[in-house]
Amino acid sequence: MHGCVFILVYVDDVTVAGESFAGVAAIKSGVSAKFEVRDMGEVKEFIGTKVMRGKRAKKRTLSNPGHIMALLQAFGMDTCTPNKTDMASAIKLSKTGKNLLPDGNRSAALVGSLLYLSATTRPDISYPVGVLSRFMSCPEQDHLRAAKGELRYFAGLLALT
To answer: In sequence order, which ranges of 35-125 are alpha helices (DSSP H)?
Structure first.
C-alpha cells in the first residue's frame, strides 16, 4: 500500500524509513497510539552512525567518524601520516610463525573493529579486512602493520572532510 517500510530498533532507539512519507507516517501513527514516543524528526544520527541525505540525488550516505576517531586514538594513531589508499591487493600476508605479537588480543580487537566498519559503513575495506581476519588466531608484526595501514587510510579520509 505504502511501499517498503523499515523499522530499525536498537534497545530504546527506533527509526523508521520507507519509500514514501505516507508509509513512514502510518507506522509512526500506529506506534505512537500504543507507546509514548518522541519524534525527533529526520534522522541525522542513529546508534553512532551519521546519516546524511542528498535531496537532489535522493540517496543516503552513512558514516562513522566518531568510531574511526576513537580507533585512531586507541591505537595512538590520531596524529599519524595518512595513507591515500587502503591495502593494496599486491600485499601478500602469510603465517610465518616469526615476529608473533606478545598480545594478539589487541590486534584481534583492531581487526574486529575494522570488520564492524566494513559491515556497517565502509564496504570499500571488505577485501583488506577479509585478508587481515585470516591471521587473527596467530597475529604477527606484519599483520598488525597492515591493519594499522587501514587506520592510516581512515586518517586520510578524515583529513579530507
So the answer is: 65-74, 104-120
CA distances from 150 to 43, 79, 80, 100, 159 (A): 29, 14, 12, 20, 14
3-state per-residue secondary structure call for 102-135:
CCHHHHHHHHHHHHHHHHHCCHHHHHHHHHHHCC
What are the strands of the beta sheet with 49-54, ordered from one edge?
A: 45-46, 49-54, 59-63
The pLDDT tens digits of the residues spanning 48-81 come to 888 888 877 678 888 888 899 999 999 999 899 9
pTM of the model: 0.76
Bridging pattern class, strands 49-54 and 45-46 = antiparallel
Judged on CB neighbours under 10 Å (0-12, 13-18, 19+), 88 is: exposed
| Residue-wise pLDDT tens digits, 108-160 | 899 999 999 999 889 989 999 999 999 988 888 999 999 999 999 999 888 76
Residues 149 and 86: their CA atoms lie apart, in Å, by 7
How is residue 113 written as a grid cell? 573493529
